[in-house]
Amino acid sequence: MKSNNTKLVTRRPTLKTLSHKQIKTTIYIKSSTPYISALKRTKKFLANLRKNNSKYVSLMGMGKAVEKTLAIGCYFQNEKGNGIDIITKTVEVIDELMETESMGMHEDAGVQDVEEQSDDDRETFLKKGRLVGLK
């Protein structure tokens, strides 16, 4: 199947089952996360380490956010003198793809129109892949 004729079926992500301690020590960085906001949030988490009875704060970023995650870690290593450990992690994922609308020809006018199908009627297939990120 050609990638031109398929589209990714988007669904909500599964709920993360994290303990209270993990919630208070884990920050997820997206590519759209503002750099300064992430720095302030990380400073706040580091200030509350003793209160949360933890030894470290985890910054997690995948894809385009890896560079930003590394930049935040390097800021705290260089400016604040904190130690950082960089851990890469690979996660296997399965994408659900759906064939896009096929183009048909009207016999009378020679005009292209789109065949109307509901999303339930379209055939979907699964594609396996891997994501690499930092922890």
What does this 3D model show about the protein?
By secondary structure, this protein is of the alpha+beta class. The protein folds into 2 domains: 3-9 and 92-134, no CATH class; 20-91, Translation Initiation Factor IF3 (2-Layer Sandwich), CATH 3.30.110.20. Helices cover 24% and strands 30% of the residues. It has 3 helices and 7 strands, in the order βαβαβαββββ. The protein has helices at 20-25, 35-47, 66-78; strands at 6-8, 26-29, 58-62, 88-99, 103-105, 112-114, 124-134. Strands 1-4-7-3-2 form a 5-stranded mixed β-sheet. Strands 5-6 form a two-stranded antiparallel sheet. Residues 103-114 have low confidence and may be disordered.
Mind sketching the topology for me?
Elements: E1 6-8, H1 20-25, E2 26-29, H2 35-47, E3 58-62, H3 66-78, E4 88-99, E5 103-105, E6 112-114, E7 124-134
Parallel strand pairs: 2-3
Antiparallel strand pairs: 1-4, 3-7, 4-7, 5-6
